[in-house]
Amino acid sequence: MPNLFLTIRNSVYCAVLVAAIVVLGLAANFATIFLPHLHRPYVIFSLVVSATTIVLFLLILLRSQARAEVFFLFVMDILWLAMAAYTTDVIGPVECFPLGGQRTPTKSGSMSLQTYCYEMKAVEAFSWAVFGIFTIWLILLICLLTKLTARGHYRAWEESVNDLPWFGQDQLYGGGYPQQMYAGAQFGGAQPYVIQQAPGHSMVIQPNANGGPPMVTQLPGTVRSGI
Known about the structure:
- Keywords: Membrane, Transmembrane, Transmembrane helix.
- The chain crosses the membrane at residues 12-36, 42-62, 69-88, 125-145.
- This is MARVEL domain-containing protein.
- It comes from Rickenella mellea.
- This protein has helices at 4-34, 40-60, 66-91, 113-150; strands at 103-106, 109-112, 180-182, 201-206, 215-220.
- By secondary structure, the chain is mainly α.
- The chain folds into 2 domains: 4-161, no CATH class; 179-227, no CATH class.
- Strand 4 (201-206) and strand 5 form a beta hairpin.
- Helix 1 packs antiparallel against helix 4 (113-150) and helix 3 runs antiparallel to helix 4.
- The protein is rod-shaped.
- Residues 173-191 have low confidence and may be disordered.
């Protein structure tokens, strides 16, 4: 069964990467047109935020610890909030359509003010979108890790993010998240049963009607016998 968490995570991060690449492209265009004299602080900030996001995302998509990823998401969330707020402050509540025919100065002349307005609006929209995605994903990841810890998976914060299950699937994957196991191995003519109990779980042992190894199921919490 595919890891639903990993599929959702990759989809979310791919969407963020696309948005960051768009912002980086627009910021690079602004740098070509305006730097080094016009809009310098804003252009440099937008270049740094978008480029840093792309580089770090490519790294964490390969391998990342849950605790480190939460910290990374928190920092990126703040940066993109600042990026969105900064862009909103620069462009303001301006409508671009009436600006047709007007010009704005550049380092080598001028450009269409309407084009500049549309590009800034695009940066603003993508910045707010990335901030929203980061915020939602950060909350979901913290909730997931907290839930796994409460159910006895105390090393969830130290696990690789690639090994984490989605909500309700923590019994389907390895790496400390087993659902059930069949114990039994031939050893010197005997058949001992070696079972490793997951932290915070109770074992339910059911005999095999065919005389084979018993089926052992691990359930979170305490299970009381009805006998």
